[in-house]
Write a structure and sequence with these properties.
The chain is an alpha/beta fold. Helices cover 30% and strands 25% of the residues. Helix 1 packs antiparallel against helix 2.
Length: 149
């Protein structure tokens, strides 16, 4: 099954009310991000905002072929990066069954070699698997090549 088909099916399932987003709220003028599609708010506006948000996440989804980070196993179909809060709960489980690893886009960067490294610590013993070279973050392997080591 094609990834694009799966992502669009998730979007349409939420818009049709068959699934709800994991943790998403639409903006209400003067009140902030409080609309979860409740009856006291404009449901049509909620769905428009949800559709735009999910479509933006689909279009801007990051991809890497492998991890540059120690302790991670290479997924068979690659790694996807997004804000998963606007997708249905447990949607990551489906993507993992399809062979993808799922990560948060605000915690990872993809190197020019298409390997991903974490930029936010996930434990006290975490050590960066990247280096800054000429103002650019690179995985350790690419940084060594760039610096001529």
């Amino acid at each position: 099954m094609k990834l694009e088909t799966v992502l669009n099916a998730a979007k349409h399932a939420m818009l049709k009310g068959r699934h709800s987003p994991h943790c998403y709220r639409a903006h209400v003028i003067g009140e902030g991000y409080v609309n979860k599609g409740q009856p006291q708010y404009d449901r049509a506006d909620y769905l428009r905002q949800l559709e735009r948000t999910v479509q933006s996440e689909i279009e801007n989804m990051g991809f890497a072929t492998d991890y540059a980070e120690l302790g991670y196993t290479k997924p068979s179909r690659g790694i996807l990066f997004a804000n998963w809060n606007c997708f249905p709960s447990r949607f990551d489980d489906l993507l993992e069954k399809l062979g993808f690893a799922v990560e948060w886009n605000d915690e990872w960067i993809v190197c020019g070699c298409l390997k991903a490294f974490r930029t936010e610590a996930d434990s006290y013993v975490w050590a960066p698997s990247y280096k800054e070279v000429h103002g650019e973050l690179m995985c350790l392997e690419c940084a060594a090549i760039e610096e001529g080591e």
